[in-house]
Design brief:
It is a single chain. A 12-stranded antiparallel barrel has the order 1-2-3-4-6-7-8-9-10-11-12-13. Strand 6 and strand 7 form a beta hairpin. 0% of the residues lie in helices and 66% in strands. The relative contact order is 0.17. It has a single domain, classed as monomeric porin ompg (Porin, Beta Barrel). The chain starts with 14 loop residues before the first strand and ends with a strand. It has 192 residues and is mostly beta strands.
Length: 192
């Protein structure tokens, strides 16, 4: 759920590890956290998630990254995964990244096909359109569609800001402004 400060260089031969945590401050519901771990080696991309598709649900993904471009950079990572816990299923997924100068687009989408029937099938999306006016600050707009919590809106819309220092990125997201369904997400990511 996080656009990287710089695209992963899949030509490097070393492993790159990173982790992200998101804490949801939800009105009228219990606050919750989501954890995501990433491992990349050349074009191989691996992910593990907890509390992403549903509460008390773990998921794991494997994919292959394709990238192109110098000034305008574009990358696509098709993935397959599985979820187990409160929600069980097979998950085809896709991550997209594009950047040009100070502008970037990051999007991840997946379709969970539930093992227990069509009632558990669900399309998830998280997308960010960002601008980096100075090296350590990124801000923009974001949308998401999730089943992690319930609001009157099917798609959540918001704004975000991230500040990067050392190997850390701290962020804040404010979804559904000017609505009774507004909420905040705090994030922290590290790249090793």
């Amino acid at each position: 759920m996080n656009a990287q400060d710089k695209p992963v260089d899949s030509t490097q031969g070393k492993w790159i590890f990173s982790a992200s945590g998101y804490y949801y401050f939800l009105p009228e519901e219990q606050n919750t956290g989501t954890l995501i771990g990433y491992a990349d080696h050349k074009s191989l991309h691996l992910e593990a998630r907890y509390n992403y598709e549903d509460l008390k649900t773990v998921s794991a993904f494997a994919g292959w990254r394709f990238e192109t471009g110098k000034e305008f950079q574009f990358a696509v990572t098709p993935m397959v995964g599985f979820a187990a816990g409160n929600t069980d299923g097979f998950i085809p997924a896709l991550e997209l990244e594009a950047s040009y100068k100070i502008f970037d687009l990051y999007s991840e989408s997946e379709y969970l096909i539930g093992f227990t029937g069509k009632d558990n099938n669900f399309f998830y999306v998280w997308s960010e359109l960002g601008v980096t006016p100075i090296k350590s600050l990124r801000t923009g707009i974001s949308i998401q569609r999730t089943r992690l919590y319930q609001t009157n809106l099917e798609t959540q819309r918001g704004i975000f800001a991230e500040y990067s220092f050392w190997k850390l990125t701290a962020g804040a997201y404010y979804f559904n402004p000017f609505s009774a369904d507004n909420f905040v997400i705090a994030s922290l990511s590290i790249e090793l």
